[in-house]
Design goal:
By secondary structure, this protein is of the alpha/beta class. It contains 21 helices and 7 strands. The strands form 2 sheets. A 4-stranded mixed sheet has the order 6-4-1-7, with helices on both faces. A 3-stranded mixed sheet has the order 2-3-5, with helices on one face. The longest helix is centred in the middle third of the chain and has 24 residues, at about 190-210.
């Protein structure tokens, strides 16, 4: 059994540490200490870092000696099969999210991304950019060196094209959350972080396109090299709206020189938000419809088809799995199933950020292909939004806007 968690400590990062990698590694050590103390060393098989920290490719800005760290920490925790995985996962992720991220000499803007798995669960994950990266570059902090090495079964050529949609949906959710916070945050550091998120989202669009055409590469430089080739741009032509290549190229240049280019005025940031949101929305729809004989379709129809509209049995099974994950009594969910199982609970929650941004694009100056008004908006409100409202209330989330609750529940359950 997992031990009762201790209270969140008052952690710090030594002022003597000024290297972003060392700072994030020290931050990871606090999570590792908690895991080993509460789970028990004999039930922890391996803990390792992947992603940008393992690759020593961390995005940051030096504000006169105060480091603003934008890259997130990707930490994998692999535990014994004899433990209750869902309970361990909730406690570890909640603890990691509770840790302070602002210190005397630095601020870590992105919350840690902590994945908790059994060994079997880890190897059964879908092949996607995050799992492909593990075998290419990782750093073991505790336990088995072999467990991350065995992830070499995840190869770039095996990534399913649908992962491109997941990638864009995740970026849109992040942007929706950051946009919500803009009005409550001072300019300067937070604006720079939002700008970085927009630059990264544009570059992730490169990854999405390469996944669709079967040319994804682990290296960021190699992805951009492939994307710039005439052959790839020709194959990707119908996946990107006009002007995309110029926006992506400019974003990539800025990512390579953050210290000089990431600072931005709030008014300019608002303009860039609109450009990038529109670019991601339009690209997402084009990618979704690439093999769809019914295109072009209205937004409400595309969204509900993405959410497996009408697949009642499959959607109900998903609902019950989420309920078990969140310790919600089965009868309480079954009673609500007639209302919420019309759409896939997982896919509906995943799209909460996308729909949130889509519904904000309602001005007369918004391009027609990302403008949702009149009948389309009404269909979203009576269909998709009603499902999200019922779903979040079934899981005890009743405060705040419907789509904000949807984003929150998705983070809690996935």
């Amino acid at each position: 059994m997992i031990a009762e968690p201790r209270e969140c400590p008052s952690i710090g990062v030594s002022p003597m540490i000024s290297n972003p990698n060392q700072i994030l590694s020290a931050f990871a050590d606090n999570i590792v200490e908690y895991v080993l103390e509460t789970v028990g060393e004999r039930d922890v098989l391996s803990i390792f870092i992947a992603g940008s920290v393992a690759q020593d490719d961390i995005a940051f800005y030096d504000d006169s000696g105060m480091l603003e760290i934008y890259s997130d920490l990707d930490l994998f925790v692999v535990i014994s099969e004899r433990l209750d995985l869902e309970s361990c996962r909730r406690r570890i992720k909640d603890y990691a999210a509770s840790l302070p991220r602002e210190f005397e000499n630095c601020k870590i803007y992105a919350g840690p991304d902590v994945g908790v798995y059994s060994e079997k669960d880890l190897y059964s994950q879908q092949t996607r950019p995050g799992t492909v990266d593990i075998s290419v570059s990782h750093r073991v902090i505790f336990g088995s060196e072999e467990i991350p090495k065995r992830t070499r079964r995840f190869v770039a050529s095996a990534i399913d094209p649908s992962e491109s949609l997941y990638l864009l949906e995740n970026r849109l959710s992040e942007i929706a959350e950051l946009t919500d916070r803009l009005g409550n945050e001072g300019s300067g550091g937070f604006d720079r972080y939002v700008h970085y998120a927009l630059l990264k989202a544009c570059f992730d669009l490169v990854a999405a396109v390469l996944i669709v055409v079967g040319e994804y590469a682990e290296s960021r430089d190699e992805r951009m090299r492939r994307f710039r080739t005439p052959i790839i741009q020709g194959r990707a032509g119908d996946l990107l709206p006009p002007g995309s290549i110029e926006v992506i190229g400019s974003s990539h240049s800025s990512l390579l020189n953050l210290q000089e280019r990431v600072s931005i005025e709030r008014e300019e940031l608002g303009t860039r938000l609109g450009v990038v949101e529109s670019l991601l929305l339009r690209s997402w729809k084009r990618i979704y419809e690439r093999d769809d004989l019914e295109r072009p379709a209205a937004w409400h129809d595309v969204i509900e088809r993405r959410c497996k509209r009408g697949k009642w049995s499959e959607n109900l099974r998903e609902l019950l799995v989420l309920g078990k994950r969140m310790s919600i009594p089965r009868p309480a969910l079954v009673l609500r199933s007639a209302r919420v199982a019309r759409l896939s609970p997982i896919e509906s929650l995943r799209l909460a950020g996308l729909v949130d941004i889509l519904l904000r694009h309602d001005g007369d100056d918004v391009p027609n292909d990302v403008r949702v008004a009149g009948v389309q908006r009404g269909r979203l409100e009576t269909g998709y939004l009603r499902v999200i409202d019922g779903l979040t209330r079934a899981f005890g989330l009743c405060d705040g806007s419907t789509l904000k609750r949807g984003r929150s529940l998705f983070k809690k359950t996935t």
